[in-house]
User: What shape does this take?
Amino acid sequence: MSNTAYQLHGAVAVITLDNPPVNGLGHDLRRHIVDGVTSAQSDDRAQAIVLIGSDRAFSGGADIREFGSPKSTAEPRLDTVIRTIEASRKPVIAAIGGVCMGGGLELALGCHFRVAIGGAQIALPEVKLGILPGAGGTQRLPRLIGVEAALDMIVSGAPVPSEKLSGTALFDQFIEGDLLGGALSFAAKLIAEKPALKRVRDISLDAPDHEAFFQQARKRIGAEAKHFPAPLKCVEAVAAAVGLPFEEGLKFERGLFVELMASPESRALRHAFLGERACAKIPDLPEGTPTRKIGRVAVIGAGATGVGIGMALLDAGIPVTLLEIGQEAVERGLAAVRRHYQDSVLKGRLPREQMDARMALLSATLNYREIKDCDLVIEAVIEDIGAKETVFRQLDEVMKPGAILASATATADLNRIAGFTNRPQDVIGMHFRSPANVAKLLEVVRGAATARDVLATVMQLAKKIRKTGVVSGVCEGFIGERMFGQYRKAAEMVVEKGASRQQVDLALEDWGMANGPLGSGAGSREAPSRIGDAEIVERCIFALVNEAARLLDEGIAQRASDIDMLCLIGYGFPRHRGGPLLYADATGLDRVVQAMAGYAGEPGAAAGLWQPAPLLIRLAAEGKTFN
Ligand code: 3HC
Assistant: This one.
């Protein structure tokens, strides 16, 4: 027996959440839930209601892709859905498996009962998007797991495995095996025993000494949150759960949610969430593009870069052979890897068995013939085109057909490198930031002849070794070095105009850059100069924006958000500003163009630096933005 809104299993109406990939609570899904719960009220056959998602997710929360569109606030809003559930005369049970996060957890908190399987991921991660739970999460969760634990979850946003919360009132029962079957049995028991319906809102919150607790929390969290307003607002919202009647607490939470949603920091973090995921999407590489198998990898050159790359692979369980030209260099490389892992063991960051397992995956050789069967080889020798030619000619000679030949070069012309082989389709760039085993960015350079499956394979590998791959076309310095070359040039010019090097570094660091462009940030601010900090920042950041516009126009970068992500992940650009192009969008492109035209008109100005890029002029004239 079925209804469009639910399936009847005996006396239980089962509402299935079905909005892949993670059951984001978009408008259609919200309406589906309300329809289901409402219809079940008047269906005499249904005596209980179960809400269930997919194996992957009960729900990942509000649909982030809907944010900013009219759909996100269209009724039924999530708080309306929750009120409908709370008001149901028949018990509503959330059956939780997979991801249960944000609005998804808030939905479950609105149900009368919750059952879960072990290993479900429970979180209120809104803070990571610069907001806070806006559908009662800050008011209901403390009532079930206590103020301290709830505040921890809300401020950190970190997922907690369901079994860790098993002693709390969050879950009424844990299910072994089949979640739906278990939830149906639980519902049958409720139907038989008819217990009173439990509403979390009715639980009174007992929190002695809460004033002192919240004072401490404000101090600690305020110091940690730095540029981000959301964590402190989380404290205020949880404090309201203790201090205000439930309905007033809900209103207070909603006010903060709306305020944070409009903040530039939240816009930046949401941009980062979607932008990081967009990097993996390549317009002419549809999903399902075949990839090549990557078993063993060879790294040519055991200097700092080669060793770092080797460890990035070993950390992901990929066997690595280091190749060097002399025994001494080989020994030095192996010792560097061992030293690094030993250090991690000593600091308690790595179990000794894992060190042993990783070292067992590492070998070294002086002989190209010994790496011929590797699926991927990454050249990481000095930045000298002659040295690269020697390496790639040898690789072309010995490597098995179909092996991917990558260069870790930061500057050399990848198409020229591909031309040293008879298989340019197998050649690709993998520009790691250093230290390569730590830095999260991998600039993946697509040569003129690089085959699609080679690009798809390397992007997949980037994910496997926990890097964000950003695709760049071929040009001098690729995306990152080309942009930051202009940035440093702008910084030097500001010095010529009378700022001290320290002032330049500190102005940009105060603005949020991880490091100043001139590399002497440790100094102190000297006597006041003729040029103010705001102008220093504007000149340096607009130089980044202008070069980024050229890269987009030339098709070197795929999309504006790729450039922003590269800067956030690889170049210490402040996350709360979302990247240079989001910053330019927020500033207003016409204002950017005007400022640059002014700089270009100064006597002795470097025209190449300040001449606004055609794309920038075009977008500004049309009143458009990059993102
Ligand atoms: N809405 C819409 N799409 C979402 C989403 C969401 N809440 N969460 C994830 N997705 C999408 C991703 O964009 C991605 O799409 P793509 O395949 O097209 O790139 C896909 O789901 C898979 O995501 P991941 O690559 O991140 O997959 P993982 O398995 O590594 O992680 C996850 C899954 C843990 C759910 C992770 O995506 C995540 O942390 N999502 C964000 C969860 C979140 O912040 N929820 C709160 C939303 S705000 C809210 O609920 C407000 C409420 O309080 C009113």
User: Anything to note?
Assistant: Residues 21-22, 24, 60-65, 78, 99, 101-103, 106, 125-126, 129, 133-135, 137, 277 surround 3-hydroxybutanoyl-coenzyme A (CB under 6 Å). The chain has 25 helices and 18 strands. The first helix runs from residue 27 to 42. The chain has a mean pLDDT of 96.
